[in-house]
Model the fold of this input.
Amino acid sequence: MANGSRIEWTESTWNPVAGCTPVSPGCLNCYAARMALRLEHMGSKCSEKYGGTAKRARDGRPVFSGHITLDHEALELPRSWRLPRTIFVNSMSDLFHDKVPLSFIKKVFAVMESCPQHTFQVLTKRPKRSLELASELPWPSNVWMGTSVESKKYYDRIRLLQATPAAVRFLSCEPLLGPLPRMPLKGVHWVIVGGESGPGSRPMQGSWALQIKRQCEAKDVPFFFKQWGGVNKKKTGRELEGRTWNEMPMSTGA
Done:
């Protein structure tokens, strides 16, 4: 879980933390929880890292258990990658989970600061904690900070992100579970939209995605359409209004 990624908006993943806890409806069919159950049975190192981080709910769905593993060995990986790459930080967890100590978060940020050749994308559903700890952390221009917003109920996450001193701030509206009218986009430099995929995926309406796209166009915010989703996301594809949308932010915020 450290090299090439199939996630459309990044190039690599880096997971110094494993495990999480569901916090909102967007977590219901978490792909990372499904993956954690698979990884638990893929050799001793994976078992040690991901063992116990996920379980089966009563209805059979994979869910995170709340157990967190800190992988100190994985911390050094980005320093070994000489060629520049875009890196999604903790695709299998949330760096700002309450059980991840500030001392470890500081180590992650120190690695990111020491690797200016890379761009690091940190995505959290806990922007309140990231803001609370912001003054304790360095914020180099190669660290992008994002938050997940699956419905308008979670606009407070956007407002917390807006106050975070990251050079680039972005939104992941995935899985998009409802319309997001009048999004507060001031100080937001990038918006990703995607429907839920995999077993039990909830459908996304095209009007929801188009509504966000129009708002991004009005505010000159780069728009990235990741997928329609569904059980077979390859079949449903990535086209919106007859084309793909792969817009990216500049390396530093406007």
